[in-house]
Amino acid sequence: LAATVNGSYNIQNNTIAGITIAGTTVSGGIIPQWIQIQGTPAANSIVSNNLIGSTTTANSIRNNAPSPAVVSFAIRHIITTGAAITMNNNTIQNITDFSTNASSVNYGILVIGTNGPSGTITLTNNTIRNMSLNNGPATPVLSNLGISIQGYAGLTHDISGNTINGINLTNTGFFAGYAVGIQVQGSSLGGTMSKNKIYDLRNANTGPAPGVGGIYFSAGLNWTVSNNMISLSNQGSTNNVDLTGISDVMGQNAIANFYYNSIYIGGTVTAGANNSYPYVRYSNSSVNIKDNIF
Questions:
Q1: Which of 8, 150, 230, 276 is deepest in the core (most CB within 10 A)?
Q2: pTM for this one?
Q3: What is the DSSP letter of 234?
């Protein structure tokens, strides 16, 4: 389902399911976009109560072509400039990608601005689960992401009440992908992230630095992150992966507040030196960390 808009749009109560991609093409790529919106919307828009995949049928949407690079989006909102967007009560579930290409990436929800739009993003009460990818990147890269916001500006965005689990990287080869619940990236981007539940993210990669991340700030300006529950253990696997509840890679002008979050990191590995953290800061942002349970 694709729409190019200059006014507003309302995409609600649709079901997209029972789709299989197959073939042996070794050149080019595959870009599945189950709901795609692009353009310069002038009025507030809504994407709500859609089901992409199935709540009961495994592999409801699947890519069986192993060789091509696959960049897959269950919902993609890509605009240059535009008004606010609300995405709520959508379910994305049981999507499987058997691509082994190193460049393959899967997104549950991607909201991306190409010219720094600042219309308020509201992503609430969405469910994203059982989304797996079999790619093989040689160096660390975010490969399978539940929710991602990139290229936006503005400080009033709201990512709250979402449930994300079963974001899996299944390839057991010597690779270094990352499975991530929520990622944000934008040096002028900020807002509120609260009451999200992120758990049971898995990574079978056995390379030098594969990882699992609950919330990953690739860049940001001013965020308040509160009352989130993150539980990561790589679900009984013994391969050596980085497990990180919250990763902070925001810049020196950023302010980040972390309040009342509950983060559990568990599991056992047979060997290896990769580290695990409930919270880790890779930058010199200003941070307030209060009343969390790690």
A1: 230
A2: 0.94
A3: G
